[in-house]
Amino acid sequence: MFVYPVSASVNEESTAVTHPFLDLAPLSAAHFASIEDRVARLLSTEQDVVITQGEALLPLEGAIRGAAGPGTTALNVITGPYGQTFGDWLRDCGATVYDLAVPFHTAVTPAQIREAFAEHPEIDFVSLVHAEAATGNTNPVAEIGEVVRAHGALFYLDAVASIGAEPVLPDAWGVDLCVIGAQKAMGGPAGVSAVSVSERAWTRMSANPHAPRRSYLSLLDWKERWIDTGRKTLLHAPAQLEMLALDACVARIEEEGLDALMTRHAKAAAATRAGTLALGGGLEPYVYEAADAAPVATTLRTPAGIDASELVTKALATDPALPLAAGGGALAKEMVRVNHYGPDATRDTVRAALTALGAALTESGLSVDVDAAHRTATEIWS
Ligand SMILES: *Cc1c(COP(=O)(O)O)cnc(C)c1O
Questions:
Q1: Superfamily of domain 258-381
Q2: In this predicted structure, what is the pLDDT of residue 20?
Q3: What does the angle CA 297 – CA 299 – CA 303 come to, to the nearest 5 degrees?
Q4: pTM score
Q5: 90, 94, 123, 168 — which has fewest CB within 10 A?
């Protein structure tokens, strides 16, 4: 871990106290543009990449409000809580929305998307969440992209929980609006985010009289006043610390290698899944099929009569630093989330999580085999 200098140095003449987070030189437009280019390379995309100055909900909402309006007919796929939110925004924009909800323990199939197009051929916008950290599932975007492209609809993807953990390839998959954030598998800051925008998506937004303009939510402002003018002058003072952190974050990924980072997440997910089954005590993977389980985080279902929030509290009592959480909302009773992402996508964190969950299950009167869980996790890692 990086440790900041402990003692601030005092300038005796002015008595100004320096601090590593403060008094930084301004972030230049050229540096800002170079960070965008770096993120574009991470996504293997030729599309325009806009780095948005806020948490990922900013470009997620900005992209929907920019591209959708009263003339839009949207297919909104719901595989977790975010899909619900996107549907609300789309309706708020005046779009006609068809929700396609699938149970949280599985993924949506390309056939289901094809059926929705057959039923409502007027669909011209598809919103999908790639991986859901909150429910632990991941959707087959490459195959779904083929179906969406064949139909000709604009394709909007929330890849916040997949980027860094599994491939995210907007160009190869025909994604028109691909939103990412750095705070999950990338191990980066939460206060800036990015969206790649296809030519088709810009055309749709430019033609949309309801698209936000002169607004913090406006992607078109960045298109017209930043991209189209050669990225010379920033629209406003950037979130400097977060931009520097994003730059460092992507540099670190380049150093480790994106493939190595994704492998770490795949192993963490496989080891958590198999280790949980070896642990016993009635704890089970929440997502039925391993192929539908997200590499970013593994969700577990507690045995009957065991409250997930209470189990997590007991597990965290042994090690409060572990990335364990109960599910959100109604899932808090039955779902445990193992958020093995970013710096926590390691063998040791997975083993420690299994130890803590084993101790919590034992305390709840269930019998477990922590050694077997450790052996299984270690085998998957090696
Ligand atoms: C994490 C996540 C986001 C960003 O939300 P935060 O809760 O602020 O981190 C957006 N979409 C998905 C699918 C996510 O998993």
A1: Aspartate Aminotransferase, domain 1 (3.90.1150.10)
A2: 85
A3: 160
A4: 0.95
A5: 94
How remote is the CA of residue 362 from the centroid of ligand 1, in Å?
Answer: 32
Query: Which residues have any ligand 1 atom within 6 Å of their CB?
Result: 55-56, 82, 129, 132-134, 158, 160-161, 181, 183-184
Give the pLDDT of residue 317: 96
How far is ligand 1, taken at its centre, from the CA of residue 160, in Å? 6
By three-state DSSP, how is residue 129 classified?
Answer: strand
pLDDT at 2: 52
Q: Which of 55, 64, 76, 82 to mutate to test the pocket of ligand 1 (most atoms within 8 A of CB)?
A: 82
Considering the four listed CATH numbers 1.10.287.70, 3.40.50.11540, 3.40.640.10, 3.40.190.80, the one that applies to the domain covering 29-256 is: 3.40.640.10
Q: Give the helix ranges, DSSP H, for 195-280.
A: 199-206, 219-222, 240-256, 258-279
Q: What is the pLDDT of residues 148-173, one digit of tens each?
A: 999 999 999 999 999 999 999 999 99
Joined tokens for residue 348: 């040791």
225-259 pLDDT, tens digit per residue, is 999 999 999 999 999 999 999 999 999 999 999 99
Q: How far apart are CA 192 and CA 55, in angstroms?
A: 5
Distance 258 CA to ligand 1 centre (A): 20
Domain map (residue ranges) of the chain? 29-256, 258-381
Name the residue of 130, 138, 160 to mutate for ligand 1: max ligand atoms within 8 A of Cβ. 160
